[in-house]
Amino acid sequence: MGALQRGARRVFVAVEGVARKNQRMPVLSYREALNQAMREEMARDDRVFLLGEEVGQYNGAYKVSQGLLKEFGPWRVVDSPISELGFAGLGVGAAIAGLRPIIEFMTWNFALLAYDQVVNNAAKMRSMSGGQLTCPIVFRGPQGAAHQLASQHSQVFENTYAYIPGLKVAVPATPRDAKGLLKTAIRDDDPVVFMESEVLYGSKGEVEDGELLIPFGQAEVVRDGGDVTIVAWQKMRFVALKAAELLDREGIHAAVIDPRTLRPFDLATVLGSLARTHRCVVVEEGWPWMGSGAQIADMLQRHGFDDLDAPVLRVTGRDVPMPYAKPLEQEVLPTPERVVEACKKVLYRS
């Protein structure tokens, strides 16, 4: 190949690389990303099936299972009676027998009725059988406040399940994470509690085509910053990002880290950021008493004590049942302004 040909080849490769880099990925909604993950995994592995209330004929209470019944039929997409304890137990039995069920709870508030099956059967199966049995099952559905659903339908239970040995807990915030983490969950040989957000189902984001598996226990550094580290997940990721924008106006640069899974938890990434910022604020939607943020603060103060220049502070939901009235609901939930205030406190600027 002559010099002219080699030069032309280099130019072609460079242009091709720039074009590929500038090519936009498909944009999916959060619900579409979940649907795509289930569709791909059901097509890949005929042991995977979906079971829950209204997942088939109605295409899911939140349209997450849209079109799956038509594509895979009633043996793979199964409408259940209104009995969380019953169909969760059926899923546990199917998983022990060699299938890979996805159990959809209409909300995690209703899953309280199935708590015995999740905790006493699914979570303990591997341990109590001495490793002879596995329980590859995914329990999924939305949690947390939506829009004026009042106290019985607005609860956050992520810490309740993260407390249980034998369970893994995923809390995706973006469509990309929703797809990548759900595919990982479906392929896991242990039970996974997969907690979604009703108010995020319509949110959109770029999701690459093809195989996408996001490992559990791998946090995302959503935003770099050198003054304070904010740890936040699911809806609170966006509250934290808004707070970081407000802080920027005052010359305070906040890093935002989304752990993506609470069990396992990527402590190393948070400690790495803490070594640079020396201050941390943890933001969670749930109640403060015995919350997930308390565990994270404990780990940071045990393993990152020498890097801390201030106590780890938490911003949480208020310690009350969720009110119905919209102004009171807004008062209960964490806000960017409350996060800004906490960041200023750890920086001794408040």
Q: How would you describe what is shown here?
A:
It is built from 13 helices and 14 strands. It is of the alpha/beta class and 350 residues long. The protein folds into two domains: 180 residues, Rossmann fold, CATH 3.40.50.970; 127 residues, Rossmann fold, CATH 3.40.50.920. Strands 3-2-4-5-7-6-12 form a seven-stranded mixed β-sheet, sandwiched between helices. Helix 8 links the parallel strand 6 and strand 7.
Task: Compile the SSE list and pairings.
Layout: H1 3-22, E1 27-29, H2 30-44, E2 48-52, H3 68-72, E3 77-79, H4 84-96, E4 100-104, H5 115-122, H6 125-128, E5 138-143, H7 158-162, E6 168-170, H8 175-187, E7 192-197, E8 204-206, E9 220-223, E10 228-232, H9 235-248, E11 254-258, E12 261-263, H10 267-277, E13 280-283, H11 292-303, E14 313-315, H12 326-332, H13 336-346
Helix pairs in contact: 2-8, 4-5, 9-13
In short:
With 350 residues, the protein is an alpha/beta fold.
CATH top level of the largest domain is Alpha Beta
Distance N to C terminus: 68 Å
- Provide the CATH architecture of the largest domain: 3-Layer(aba) Sandwich
Report the oligomer.
single chain
Order of helices and strands: HEHEHEHEHHEHEHEEEEHEEHEHEHH
Number of strands: 14
Q: What integer is the average pLDDT?
A: 93
- Tally of separate domains: 2
Q: List segments where confidence is low: pLDDT < 50 over at least 5 consecutive residues.
A: 3-21
Strand order of the largest sheet: 3-2-4-5-7-6-12
Alpha-beta content class: alpha/beta
